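Example for tutorial group B:
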């Protein structure tokens, strides 16, 4: 059964760091495009980072230099290290797997709140 389970997130003051993890089961992340999305209240989800099979990554301009997406094939997990967080990073964050035979898969979402 395909499943993405997220951990991490929470509350942090501006300038702080948080780490999100997304553990996959039912498929191997190394074979698929994986993404981190975030969603602001009342807005559509936007891509934060793309993890490409073969090991390369792309990050949205809004997080470039602050967020680092990575994958650990041995743990079948992707991570999002978020540094120098800003209040405008406050959102619900989701991991996503694209192109599975069963269709796309989403993590359950995790809230990130940045405030003083």
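The residue assignment follows.
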């Amino acid at each position: 059964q395909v499943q993405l389970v997220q951990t991490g997130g929470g509350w942090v003051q501006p300038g702080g760091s948080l780490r999100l993890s997304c553990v996959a089961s039912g498929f191997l992340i190394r074979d698929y495009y994986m993404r981190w999305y975030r969603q602001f209240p009342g807005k559509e989800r936007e891509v934060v980072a793309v993890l490409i099979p073969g090991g390369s990554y792309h990050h949205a301009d809004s997080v470039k230099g602050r967020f680092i997406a990575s994958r650990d094939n041995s743990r079948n997990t992707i991570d999002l290290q978020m540094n120098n967080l800003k209040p405008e990073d406050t959102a619900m964050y989701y991991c996503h797997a694209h192109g599975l035979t069963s269709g796309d898969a989403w993590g359950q979402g995790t809230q990130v709140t940045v405030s003083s």
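Residues 4 and 78 are 10 Å apart (CA to CA). Compare this with the pattern of hydrophobic and polar residues in the output above.
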